[in-house]
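Hey,
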Amino acid sequence: MSPSTSPASTTTTAGAVVGAGAVVGAGPGAGAGTLVACDLDRTLIYSANAFWLETADCDGPRIVVSELYRGVPLSFMTREAERMLLELAAVTSFVPVTTRTVAQYQRVQLPGAVPRYAITSNGGVILTDGKPDERWRASVAARLTSEAAPLADVEALLTDPAAAAWILKVNNAEDLFVYAILDRPAMPVEWVTALQDTCSALGWSVSVQGRKLYCVPNPVTKSGALAEVQTRLGADTLIAAGDSLLDRPMLEMATIAFRPAHGELEEAGFFADNLTVTSSRGVLAGEELMRLITAAVEAAVPEPAATRV
């Protein structure tokens, strides 16, 4: 599916929609000075239900398993996307950024070594060499106390018997936020709108992604954690990719940003001057994103200085 373009957008020869100020593969610095932050689900990895392949099976891409759950393959990426990701991680600071909890993130099998930094729990946790950073968690806890209503108040909105027809299960994510498993066709739009208004007054935000509804306190953000990691790394160029409303602040703060032509941001018609949108959707969009990010990194590498003889 090709996305619609905004007035401030152009279309590349590959079909990707590029914001007026976005230069695919351009930016100051590269290599060790470049931080690549990438959302996971429906950006880099995909469940079988989100493949959205429109080709004959015999012409489909080669697929690799990226996650097992109870011994069963759950998430995937294309083999080509995996190859490009492995190469990217060797020349940049690659940081996975996800709303998954630590335990859910640890099920994901990305190629290569464990990243130096990873951001989980929608920014509530920074993993350093695979271990939770206690200093960051303490700073988040302090902000939660002063800037958002208690988690129990929001959890009660989701466990209200009036919503039982479409709320199948409610989960507490590490005492940082809550999310519900939905019968989405049964969920009234008016109920979501009312929930968003109520949560906003409590200092929380709402995001619906597939069969999951997330209620997240405003201090717990991917962008806040990413800013911390960028400062620690001293990276001068930030390249980011994501598909949901929870990713939007991260994309807006990036030097160069990408999103797939599906998900909440596609439904919201989100565009920005620094943003490129894929021409494909589903698992092939994940591969296209890796290709676009690779081109951005390669074009940002400065030419070697001339050697005086």
